Amino acid sequence: MNRFMDRAETMVAESLDGFVAAHADLLMFCPERKCVRRRVMTPGKVGLISGGGAGHEPMHIGFVGTGMLDAACTGHIFSSPTPDQIVTAITQADTGAGCLLIVKNYDGDVMNFEMAAEMAAADHDIAVLLVGDDISDTHAKPSDRRGVAGTVLVEKLLGAAAETGMPLSALLSLGQALATRIFSIGVALRGASVPELRRPTFALSPGEMEVGIGIHGEPGCSRQRFEGAEATARMMCEHILAAAGSSLSGQGLLFINGFGATPPSELYLMHGHVRRILGEAGISVERSLVGTFATSLDMAGLSATLALLTDAEQALWDAAVHTAALRWS
Amino acid sequence: MNRFMDRAETMVAESLDGFVAAHADLLMFCPERKCVRRRVMTPGKVGLISGGGAGHEPMHIGFVGTGMLDAACTGHIFSSPTPDQIVTAITQADTGAGCLLIVKNYDGDVMNFEMAAEMAAADHDIAVLLVGDDISDTHAKPSDRRGVAGTVLVEKLLGAAAETGMPLSALLSLGQALATRIFSIGVALRGASVPELRRPTFALSPGEMEVGIGIHGEPGCSRQRFEGAEATARMMCEHILAAAGSSLSGQGLLFINGFGATPPSELYLMHGHVRRILGEAGISVERSLVGTFATSLDMAGLSATLALLTDAEQALWDAAVHTAALRWS
Asked: What ipTM did this prediction achieve?
């Protein structure tokens, strides 16, 4: 299928151009366009940095702004930004209190962010937080879980905490605690088409659904028959509840995230199903986020994320945020 | 292709359920679920009401809240709400200063909203504003233009004006003036699939693009070869500039709207192209809106809308808004 681009080689740069132009009131390019940063930094606040491959927009560039990230790096499609890009982001975002790098748990991202942290360590206080919220692979150890849409929640919560003046070590601890209480699972009805190929990276027959999907075009953990929205919601909730296990307490934040080609009407329908089924299991959903925030190009599908928050964390969620993709006060 | 629903007959109601549950802090169902309304009305403010078929979410329900609409009615897929629904919305939203009905210019919507206005006229001051911003059909008289994504801008601007206490007659005049300076054109790379059919309402060959598309599954004004993003942006700008003609002054607000299945990365890329081409024509884009706001189910495509605003209207755009889909302060 066609898409709104010209050449695969220029797509990422042109999309970034349009993004920065649209939101020039709050953000700007770093030197040599190596990253996107807040227009105005807050001296003495810990700098929050994230990044990843292109094709996940608005993640992470859409979360740069007051109450969330200070800078974000974008690589090529589904490829980590380079250590050089990340070091530039650190240089831009460190106003004296150090930087926290929020990294989705994927090999390429982890390698490059850790390398950048090492390169910058002589001049900057750096901590690296890995987020692994994808609980679809029931055989994976928690430390092997991939970072997917739940990363958005971590960035919002830590962003609000950083605005209060929380120091680097405390932000890292908070992030590590949060990451154990955020559970995501994704499903797809059609795979992502990478610009070079112009066809889905995996093919589903009519009536099939890919379960436990990542966000880099790779197939999921299993392929199942699509039995409708409610059955899908029930299956997703079973995975989430099993993973949450004994930690099932706290205020529920339910996040339904579209992967790029699933319209709001379907996301809201699924939100209603998942919310009801979680409620039957005793989980009260106190906060909701529904929309297209962590995409996989034009994949048709969605993920459900449950975060179990303390009262203090819920207050961080409610705190003001002003970014391109999340904005409230 | 599959979609996240169970039965076509229940899809709209289930999606509305999920929507209202997700945003219960700011809105609620009207009696018998005939419409969605603000949880708290402002006594003495003119009530702003819109509505239309389902399948366009988040339009219009996503724009109910402070600074925008007081109530919104949703019909069946691509079908107008009934006069009975609209009368209920009027009863709910009229707090003493009357109601303005903001109606996209489509026969079914116009008929039902005007019938509702007549039914309610004995007990309420009512004015009806028709919005026709689709300039793709160069043979259509301005009064015959269809109402498409530009309606979102009208709802935001009038919503802000209503919050300042502007009376009904002045809101109608402002809306009529605005509607002559808002120009939209849409293109599609794949048609919408209505739930009953599960296939696109029109078929495009690879390499084809539908130009001048509406939002109800109908084909557009012409079918062209898709020549890439930049050529598409240029063609869209030519239409917009021709329609704007002599009224080409004021502050430009550029709105790139996704129709449901087009991801943010592509919307931003097109924003960049359209913005640059308008700039070459002397139009400075002072405000931007990029996202999926007025959809046609899962259609792959987008529209570009240029609004030419006075300084006072730009201030209305900047004014605080708190709805499910648009939120700033």
From this structure: 0.96
